[in-house]
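tl;dr need the bound structure. longer version: we got a ligand (iron/sulfur cluster) that a collaborator sent over and nobodys looked at where it sits. i said id run it. heres the input, straight from their email, havent touched it
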Amino acid sequence: MNQRAESVEKERIERTLAAFRRNRYDVSLFQTREEAADYLAREIAGKRVGFGDSETLRALALYERLSAKNEVIDPARCAQAGGLEAFLAAGREALLTDVFVLSANAITEEGQIVNMDGAGNRIAGSLFGHEKTYFVCGVNKLVKDIAAAIERIHAIAAPQNAARKKKRTPCAVKGDRCHDCTSPERICNALTIHYKKMSYRPMELVLIEECLGL
Ligand code: SF4
C-alpha cells in the first residue's frame, strides 16, 4: 500500500472507531492478531466464555489462548467432536456464560454490526445475557453502510461459509453468490443489525488491521 492509500485507510478506520464510540461501544484497535489475542486473554482471564462460530477467532487461536485461564465453550468445536446434539447443548450453554466472543459478517463505517446466522446461537449470544460481549473483526469486514454489509454477506460471507461447512446449497455448489435458496441446508435464516450497542451491558469492537475470517 502506498503512503496515500495508507493514510486514507487510517482515516477510514479512525472514522469507524469514532462512529462505534458514538454508538456507545468500547473500541480497541490492534495491528496484529497476536496483539489482539494477548489483549483478550488479559481482559477475559478467569471468566466463563462462550464463542459464536467464527473463522476469525480460529485465526487468533483464541480457544487455545483463553483455555489456559478460562472455561471456554465453543459450539463449533463441540460439533466436530460430538455432532449435532453436542452442538445444540454447547450452543445453549454458551448463552449462559459471563462473556461472549464472536466476530461479524460485516461492520459499517457508521458503527453498525451485521450478522447472518443459520442456527441462531451466534446472534442470540450477541444480543443479551452476558457481562460483556466482544466483536473481534479484521478490517476486511469493514464496509460503508448497511446496504454494503448485506451485499458483503450475499457475495462473500455466506457463500464462503456454506462452502466451508460443506453445505449442499447452490452458492456452495456453484461457488458464486447467494441464490436466496430454499435448501434445507441454508445457512441464512436470520439477519441481525446492531444499529447501536444493546442496552445495559458493555460491548466492545476489537478491530484488527489484518484480513481475518470470511
Ligand atoms: S440463502 Fe442459500 S444460496 Fe444464499 S448464501 Fe445463504 S445458503 Fe447460500
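gonna send this back to them w/ a short note. The helical segments are 3-22, 33-44, 55-59, 62-67, 75-94, 121-127, 146-164, 170-174.
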